[in-house]
Design a protein that fits this description.
With about 300 residues, this protein is α/β, with parallel strands linked by helices. About 45% of the residues lie in helices and about 20% in strands.
Length: about 300
């Protein structure tokens, strides 16, 4: 396979023309003259032509050198244009953040995250999708999102998963205070009138996946009386006495029904663990890297 012409060789060639000698070009580029001379010799060997007539006084271009010069300048200019085009992304003065979060993140994270990010980087566009964690993981895996904040466990195939950035206790919630006087076992959950969120994802949802594993280990089945899509909808129905919910304690603290509801821990205690997922082998854009850093920082400051 032929050795390719490199941008460095073209740069050295143009510099030699502009400065009139190899020594002057090497000095301008802050390199040793033998290095510059060797790269130009390799360029001549690759092209199969002599580019310079070497004299004691100065360099003179051959016919081949005169034909190459404008094309070499155009190639280097195109590279400069490409560098300029991505500079706003690299410098966080442009581009778009592409980030996913678990479905209830807007109740205690998303507003602060987006507001602080936009205050710091007002010219960077922000695209944040709030979905079930399993769906966020799929979107990151296939490239629709650069990164995501998810509850574990999710299918980790094709993903890199950070160490946990936040842990939130999962609790049993009811409008009937008598039902929350003691921690709830999974056997008691199986007999309770449950309103569970994540109807679309069911046992693929990380929290329901944990509950299902507990139920199977205990030899019982969790059959919710009502399934809804959003955790906040499950809490709204629990506040009206339709059934009892199982949600994260921080979410209960953030919504407006805390006065109408009481809660009890699960027995044994259960937690939602949150981490950042990115596509394996994929380098994040600077803007998304910063969004990930800020999200993790905000969550680490929150109580479990």
């Amino acid at each position: 396979m032929p050795v390719p012409v490199t941008l460095q060789q073209l740069e050295y060639f143009v510099a030699a023309v502009d400065h009139g000698s190899f020594s002057a070009a090497a000095q301008a580029l802050h390199i040793a003259q033998p290095s510059l001379s060797e790269q130009i010799r390799r360029l001549e060997r690759r092209l199969g032509v002599v580019l310079f007539i070497r004299t004691n006084r100065q360099l003179a271009l051959t016919e081949a050198g005169r034909l190459l010069l404008p094309r070499a300048r155009a190639t280097l200019a195109t590279v400069d244009d490409a560098v300029d085009a991505v500079r706003p992304v690299r410098a966080l003065t442009g581009g778009t953040v592409s980030f996913g979060t678990f479905s209830s993140a807007h109740h205690f994270l998303l507003d602060d995250l987006v507001a602080q990010f936009r205050e710091r980087y007002p010219t960077v566009r922000v695209r944040v999708l709030g979905r079930n964690s399993a769906e966020v993981a799929d979107a990151v895996r296939d490239g629709r999102l650069e990164a995501g904040l998810v509850a574990l466990p999710v299918d980790e195939a094709g993903l890199d998963v950070t160490p946990p950035v936040w842990t939130a206790e999962v609790v049993y919630v009811s409008a009937d205070a008598d039902r929350t006087r003691a921690p709830m076992t999974v056997e008691q959950l199986a007999a309770a009138p449950l309103v569970l969120p994540e109807a679309r994802w069911g046992d693929q949802d990380p929290t329901r996946r944990q509950l299902g594993e507990r139920a199977r280990a205990a030899g019982v089945t969790l059959e919710p009386a009502v399934e809804v899509e959003l955790p906040v909808a499950a809490l709204a129905l629990a506040a009206r006495g339709v059934g009892d919910a199982v949600v994260s304690r921080p979410l209960l603290a953030e919504v407006g029904w805390a006065g109408d509801l009481s809660w009890a821990p699960l027995d044994p205690p259960m937690y939602e663990t949150f981490a950042i997922v990115t596509r394996s082998g994929h380098r994040l854009s600077p803007a998304t890297q910063e969004m990930v850093r800020m999200a993790a920082d905000l969550l680490r400051r929150r109580p479990a």
